[in-house]
């Protein structure tokens, strides 16, 4: 069945890999990427739309699709403050999800984080948990939430802490019981999202840590 997919966060680690994989997927006929800046793609399947996330209601007509992939996210350093980060990690994503469900999208696929918890003392994990709680209330036919461990891969911006963790974690994961926490690449998360998008179902599903790896 030919389907239309929307991707936000298409320029990030997971989103970029996902768009590339979606262009090769037989069940996808069109991919709408919603970005802040113009992006050029090699595939005719991709329709890039430059939008202002502060005014998402003005772009409501773009949310008419079958699948909605939410890969958007930022860091405290990039955002400049917790409040600015919340706009991206919670407000923009929730508003986009609301527009998607209002325009008939049946399957919502969200990249969250391991440890996401609305009661967490970590502002980052708290935001991720709050978003999960809010989107679970929306009347999508199918909701798939992915909670990967440390994401690694080539990013546009350098992250020292992530680089150090990416070096240490594979070593630590040799210890029995820690293997499930091993780092995962953006390509691997994207591949799992693509696989799940081909499995029509209903209700809520979580994919955690090592469950996201495809052997």
Describe what you observe in this structure.
The protein is 34% helix and 20% strand. It is an alpha/beta fold and 215 residues long. Strand 5, helix 4 (123-135) and strand 6 form a beta-alpha-beta unit. It has a single domain, classed as Rossmann fold. Strands 3-2-1-4-5-6-9 form a seven-stranded parallel β-sheet, with helices on both faces. It has six helices and nine strands; from the N terminus they run E-H-E-E-E-H-H-E-H-E-E-H-E-H-E. Residues 155-169 have low confidence and may be disordered.
Tags for this model:
single chain, 215 residues, alpha/beta, Rossmann fold, 7-stranded parallel sheet, 34% helix
Total domain count: 1
Q: Please, what is the average pLDDT? A: 88
CATH superfamily: NAD(P)-binding Rossmann-like Domain
Q: State the order of secondary-structure elements, H for helix, E for strand.
A: EHEEEHHEHEEHEHE
Helix content: 25-40%
Distance between the termini: 26 Å
Number of helices: 6
Task: Work out the radius of gyration.
Answer: 17 Å
CATH architecture: 3-Layer(aba) Sandwich
**Spatial arrangement of strands, main beta sheet:** 3-2-1-4-5-6-9
- Annotation, overall tally of beta strands: 9
Summarize the main sheet: 7 strands, parallel
Structural class: alpha/beta
**What general form does the structure show?**
globular
Name the beta content range.
15-25%
CATH topology: Rossmann fold
Low-confidence stretches: 155-169
Give the CATH level 1 class.
Alpha Beta
């Amino acid at each position: 069945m030919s389907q239309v997919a929307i991707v936000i966060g298409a320029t990030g680690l997971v989103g970029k890999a996902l768009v590339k994989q979606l262009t090769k997927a037989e069940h996808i006929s069109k991919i709408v990427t919603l970005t802040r800046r113009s992006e050029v793609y090699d595939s005719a399947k991709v329709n890039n739309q430059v939008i202002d996330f502060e005014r998402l209601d003005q772009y409501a007509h773009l949310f008419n699709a079958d699948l909605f992939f939410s890969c958007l996210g930022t860091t405290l350093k990039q955002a400049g403050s917790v409040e600015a980060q919340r706009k991206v990690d919670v407000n923009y994503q929730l508003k986009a999800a609301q527009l998607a469900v209002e325009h008939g999208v049946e399957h919502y696929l969200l990249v969250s984080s391991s440890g996401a918890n609305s009661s967490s003392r970590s502002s980052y994990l708290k935001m991720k948990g709050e978003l999960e709680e809010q989107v679970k209330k929306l009347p999508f036919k199918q909701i798939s939430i992915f909670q990967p461990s440390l994401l690694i891969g080539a990013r546009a911006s350098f992250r020292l802490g992530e680089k150090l963790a990416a070096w240490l974690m594979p070593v630590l994961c040799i210890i029995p019981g820690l293997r499930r926490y091993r780092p995962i690449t953006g390509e691997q998360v994207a591949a799992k999202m693509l696989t799940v998008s081909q499995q029509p179902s209903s209700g809520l599903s979580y994919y955690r840590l090592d469950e996201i790896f495809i052997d």
